């Protein structure tokens, strides 16, 4: 494709707007702002008046925290690799219901804002609190629910206690745009994107686990064993070069990224032609503690023709990407090993 | 891609030569000669001297049938859709070993030659015969076998009794080329391509089932339940239009082909977006009794953005294409429902 015709985003759905990062944009350590994937369940909500967040529930003193207050508080910057839980749904058989995400519901973004824990300290969390519920301004009807459903997602209290979970005001150094959750959204390192609630209006301390629609009916692993809310990003790797369909020499330099919500990347291996001869890649320095790790390996191929490149990552918890995930009805968490087919030509 | 740059074949392996039919070539009822897929296990054998076929084994009188004799016998023309058993191997997870065939190890070809049964009548088959073994001129080493392995494949005697199994001398009205099995190859309607043995040198009537390498170690379904030789083509359909990635109107006309080695096509249905709302397609006239059936359907799409088109065929035996096949170690017979992702734009 002519570079001039590469779109900023690959549209998955126009209304509500959902779009992927193009593969070219995922070559960069930090995804350029215009290329960051967009996931919306109900479209961009219209917000009027000065924005503020109501912090309430199991707290010592309920508060309304204005945007001005947030701006006046200490600002932190955290870079995270963020993947939509439905990324790579198109790679699952049978095809699950849901948006047909291919490979690009994935971006690495630098967030700037206030640590959620700083806000929680302002209000004083009661010992009885177990979860923090983030409620968004976007809402709408759903086929499988009554009335209007509002986007809301909870986090275990423990996951809100590190400074790096932010109420973000900026993305890659610029104010958040409406599509990305302006004026304020959550950014949760290590979790699939649904946890990073956009257009936050309420922060509620709960004394029992949240049971709402997006916690129990969507963004859940609906498998034979039962229903479990989706949480951290499963260990995964992608090959960024060579591109699918590329013509390559017999010495193929394969590069890519690997990440996990369960710890740092311990190992990446690459295989040619579907065999079990996995060759170790060299790991680079992670883009941040919560972002992907670059890797590369040079492989000698012994024949000309089409070959299949595959990569698999192992994280610090010892988990390795599987060949194929256990299928789940809603098509989440597909970290199965991908295939990149290229053509080898000796020159 | 500029039409001028579309290759005649998509190379899978240069040595031995294996190559797919390009998707554009599969738009046509009959695959143009230069675009017919090529599958070779050991490369094209060198044949010297006047070619002849030795017919022997459980027969009344063994014979050597020369090419001149074959040319002098009654000629029949049969059009078949022929698919490599490994076609769509790339769609399987985990990726099985074997050539990385994508969608194009598939062609529809018109064969002209002598009915195998006419040759069998010349020699007189003994009542004790149960299979007919076809041996080819190509041979070579294999990693998992000792010495030199020759390509050979057997058919149950019953499957050789219909006039439409040919010792073919011509393809699409032209003499066979070396890559396609010149001077004489078998053409078995309804079976995966491995049965259509190329460069035939021997026809042997067997009194016990053949147990050779390509019957028991390759071209077998190696599954949890055991090992079974691959035989007839599983019911399958492909979407030929729109092409993957095409931008389409809200009224999408979907067309394609369907075929089965187990009978005629009874029904084709198309679904949008992975749902279970299958819409019936209109079937056209099959290209031949042994070739694919054209189908088409017009579908109204209610939204803009990326949609997933899927088609599934049902044959006269009542079998419908599955969402995904039972995985087998060598990656054969993948007739799982395919996905074609297109972009809807209202105009």
Describe the 3D structure.
The structure is a homodimer of 347-residue chains. With 347 residues, chain A is mainly beta. Chain A is built from 3 helices and 23 strands. Chain A has helices spanning 67-72, 116-123, 213-216, and strands at 10-13, 18-20, 52-57, 63-66, 76-83, 106-115, 131-141, 148-156, 166-171, 174-175, 185-187, 200-206, 220-223, 226-229, 236-241, 247-248, 251-259, 265-272, 279-280, 282-283, 293-300, 305-315, 340-344. In chain A, the strands form 6 sheets. In chain A, strands 4-3-12-7-8 form a 5-stranded mixed sheet. In chain A, strands 5, 6, 9, 10 and 11 form a 5-stranded antiparallel sheet that branches. Chain A has a 5-stranded mixed sheet with strand order 16-23-22-18-19, with no helix packed on it. In chain A, strand 3 and strand 4 form a beta hairpin. Chain A binds chain B through residues 10-15, 18, 90-91, 93-98, 100, 102, 273-275, 303-308, 310, 323-324, 336-337, 339, 341, 343, and chain B through 10-15, 18, 90-91, 93-98, 100, 102, 273-275, 303-308, 310, 323-324, 336-337, 339, 341, 343.
Secondary structure layout:
The structure is a homodimer of 347-residue chains.
Chain A: E1 10-13, E2 18-20, E3 52-57, E4 63-66, H1 67-72, E5 76-83, E6 106-115, H2 116-123, E7 131-141, E8 148-156, E9 166-171, E10 174-175, E11 185-187, E12 200-206, H3 213-216, E13 220-223, E14 226-229, E15 236-241, E16 247-248, E17 251-259, E18 265-272, E19 279-280, E20 282-283, E21 293-300, E22 305-315, E23 340-344
Parallel strand pairs in A: 3-12, 16-23
Antiparallel strand pairs in A: 1-2, 3-4, 5-6, 6-9, 7-8, 7-12, 9-10, 9-11, 13-14, 15-17, 17-21, 18-19, 18-22, 20-21, 22-23
